[in-house]
Specification:
This protein has 85 residues and is of the alpha+beta class. It has one domain. It is built from two helices and three strands, in the order αβββα. The mean pLDDT is 84.
Length: 85
């Protein structure tokens, strides 16, 4: 079998698909209606908000910061605390 440097030809002969890098969206480009967007951010701060009288956890909150140093607050359900913590 002849060798080739064309990646499309290699993928075709081996039956493999070439993965495409997902498009990363900055926080400033996000809109409330966007669902399947990917952001790259670090957690700048995090806390668990609690009910004032009952002192029960109600929400897991954090501040996210992207590469352009744009900040956004993210809120998750308290049941997802272990996953995001």
């Amino acid at each position: 079998m002849a060798t080739t440097s064309n990646p499309d030809r290699i993928a075709e002969t081996k039956g493999k698909m070439i993965a495409i890098e997902p498009e990363v969206t900055s926080i400033t480009d996000l809109r409330p209606t966007d669902c399947n967007k990917i952001i790259e951010a670090i957690v700048y701060g995090k806390w668990i908000s609690k009910h004032v009288q009952k002192r029960q956890p109600t929400r897991f909150c954090c501040i996210l910061m992207d590469k352009q140093v744009t900040l956004i607050q993210a809120n998750m359900d308290v049941k997802d605390t272990e996953y995001f913590n």
